[in-house]
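Lay summary. Proteins are chains of building blocks that fold into shapes, and those shapes determine what they do. In this project we predict the shape from the chain. Here is one chain we studied, written as its sequence of building blocks.
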Amino acid sequence: METETNLQPANQPDVSNGVQTSAMSLERSLGSASHSHVSPATCANCGVVASDSNGNGVSAPSYVFAIGRVEMRFPSLAVEKELAQAAGQVDTKGLTDRKATHAVLSERRNRYLLRHLCWVFTIGGLETYILVPRDPADYDQLLEAVRPQPSPLDIDVVIGVRGPIAPPEMCNGLTVPIVAFDQIYSFDRDSLMKALPSPKGRKTADYSTAAAEVLDRIMLLTDNAGSTDAHRALNYMAVRYPGVYNTVADAFERDASLTAVDVQPASISGTRNIVDVIFSFTNRKTDVVEKYFTRCDVTEEFPFLIAKMSPYFDR
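And here is the predicted shape, written in a compact code that computers can read:
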């Protein structure tokens, strides 16, 4: 965000470094399995990064910036029984099953279980990715995402590199793409709305209501798996740029409805991959359409803002 909320890290990693080393980092982090059982921590084919050709015969990593939910699964009966055995050594009296599981996994001595569990990322209730950290130290991010007291308003954002389809034995038969993530940050929708800076002269409650409607629309967009340039840009705007919400709230004040959101390549891209995110508003009385756009660079793993929200004119 231009004034980023306190729900995410203040500093972003060096994006130029990430592009040059993405394939090698993924291979080092995931390694190769030498046993018949494939756990989320050791997948035989995970070192191969799903990629797209950039037109010069060189393959570029396929990046993901997705909004959804992180869920914990048991890849096998043995792992489930091992967790149950570890629970017998932790005081879980009075805790719900979810809280008890979180308490067990939070114990340092049980950290090995984090590496053997299967971490699934769902979008709109659909199992979309299996998550594996590029740095083993980041298993804590997965544990933090699986809350002891879940809510339907919980939101997780995953940023990483998409890999191959997981083998059936990796996650109890689930065959979806693997994402080696660099960053996960978790919050609930109400916290995001409260963290957005409310424009002067506007009631906070009205602004939060408008902002919540915009976020819900973005999350409900068809097939938004956060893997295309358009979806990555849109998801970035939804959680990192408050100007989107300000613009929509202003439109509501003018008695206009948000009727369309389009993403298209910017005419000034050059050697960078830059897209325009265009918001269309239709006046409820006159049917006159106004358009506003913002510009986002999605060349590398971490998108960033190029231009603030401004009027858009069809060419």
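What the prediction tells us: The chain has nine helices and ten strands.
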